[in-house]
Queue: 4 jobs
Job 1
Amino acid sequence: MVIAMNMLPVWIILGVVVLVIFVVIGIYNSLVQKRIRCREAWSQIDVQLKRRYDLIPNLVETVKGYAAHEKETFERVIQARNAAIAVGPGDVKGQAKAENFLTGALKQIFALSEAYPDLKANQNFMQLQEELTSTENKIAFSRQHYNDTAAIYNTARETFPNSVIAGMFNFQTRDYFEIEEPAEREAPAVKF
């Protein structure tokens, strides 16, 4: 009985250690799941951005036929598209900045249709405009989903005791995919 009494503190300490290990494993796994959800949400943005990039050359070629002397506008759109494509994977802030610039360049293309009534009536232009509008809506939805997912991950990462585990295992904060310019917060007007 004396041996059993002497072993009681050892069992208590061992039980506490095992409990702490399980808590650490649970928190770690939860953070990993949230990080994976952020990656999945970002991949949805990436899919829509790629679709947008594929539509842009067709749009530019269609408009070129009607507004051949607007070379500077076309070059700006193509440069903006290429800059957006060149952003490294996972660079959320860089991607947001490039996308903001591209959106501004696309607004100039759509503004050209006001000066060229034949372009407004062109079936191919109208179809590309509709596809681009649909893609813009999907990008907005994907961005919102990503930002919500990033907020959940960042909140979990920064609350105690998760913050201790996140620091030990180097879980990084996720940036939000945000629009920087107040004027760019307005949806582009693509109706003709």
Job 2
Amino acid sequence: MDGLEWDKIIIGVDPGTNVMGYGILGVKQKKPHAIAMGVILLNKFEDHYLRLRRISERMTGIIEQYLPDEMALEAPFYGKNVQSMLKLGRAQGVAMATALVHDIPIAEYAPLKVKQTITGNGAASKEQVAEMLRRILNIPKENMDKHLDATDALGVALCHFYESQRPVVGKTYKSWKDFVAKNPEKVK
């Protein structure tokens, strides 16, 4: 699909402090296509701050190469290790800040939501997500990234694509008072 002008490009990010996955999804005529996927390897840096700098540098390069219109991130799940959660949140924050510097809007999705959207099963394995992505996006087996963080990131991008295609059924209101407050022109 090289040389194709995309209607929209979505970058998906699977934040990590050892391996950060990214996936680039192109949309043409309301159809998603995999453009690229890969990982940012961070475990060679012992210093956490150097890892954060590397995330910023690589995310900047990826954004400048693919020029995404939107970013979708997998929201971190809550674990028992507070230090790990703090480091993961920092990694996610650096990716978000890099997108914001480039005026790219951000959406977040829980891992369960991504798995449910891609496979129909919120408890699906990373391997099941990768295989469904391969089938949905018609990716040849030899073009699949061996890192499941990369396919997870592509899954986040595809989840965002599907969510952004849903029609808005209408406004929701909490009460009559809420309806009146949001529609003063209708109450005269």
Job 3
Amino acid sequence: MEQTKILAICGIDTGVGKSVATGLMAGALLAEGQRVMTMKIVQTGCEGRPGDILLHRRLMGSAWTEADEQGLSCPYCFPFPASPHLAARLAGSEIRPDKIDQATGALARGHDLLLIEGAGGLLVPLRDDLLLLDYLAARHYPLVLVTSPRLGSINHTLLSLEAIRSRNVPFAGLVYNLFGNTPAEIVRDTLVTLKAALARYGLARPVVLLPDSRESTTVNWKPLLST
């Protein structure tokens, strides 16, 4: 049987649209008949059901599942809205990579594709001795980076690309999230700059445009799945 493909959906920062991109990609692929599941490694500022998983399910057109109820789709959910390592500490807990791995394995079974949403930016600490990107790099998961044209995005994206390249993480491409009211001049220039950076860093992978989610637009996610 063919092994489940696992794809990490990460962002240049918090609030850049990782959850929306994850849910929309999963929903589009489900509509094509693929067996797709999503998970979130850790969510903070979380009371009850994880909000990002609820958003995934809504965008996928899916109901809350038994795996969600068991906590497999979000192995760690902490109430304090902070970096995962601090939120875990304040909750009297610690994030264990093996627990995330066990949840990943359980969710991957029976699916063609598992989308794993990261938390915050790439170098957010999961614990004092482990960054998110180092966790993903050790497992060789192909990574999609969600970025945007908002101010600061060029700097954050280039730093993220350098971190990806330095760790030899398989890179699947960029999602350029156009949500918001960024001036057209910035939207165009940022896109040109980021495409040039991909070529310069030897990371010539696809750039998928994600239009404002308030618009009804079909997105072709397949270029990101070829890695």
Job 4
Amino acid sequence: MTLATPVLVVDDEPHIGRIIKTRLEQGPFDVTLAETGAAALEALGAQPETRLIILDLMLPGMSGIDVLRTIRQDPRWLTLPCLILTAAGQDAAYREADALGVAEFMTKPFSPRRLYARAMALTGTDDPHALPEPESMS
């Protein structure tokens, strides 16, 4: 039995979180949803084995940048991959997120298929439904 790969999705729009959760859980992921920065930090503390964070920049109260900055101050999550998924076109926020070690940026609206593919790549997770690669002929 393969263990699911834990992913934290942080978005204040519940329908966006549900779309992401539904798509990722069709594969090898176990998704925890958080709608605020404080809830995200609490969820990460409760599940320190999280392998990927999908983070919106525009959150009520604590911004996505604040969440990322707080996460990066903890040695356990210094290299935890973070994918920013946002509608924001704020160049300063993008530069700051990049400086904090964001793995990738995606803008809303987004392709759930592409997001799934990026989650697979960023976590180094194998898709149990993928067809095996053909053996090379040498």
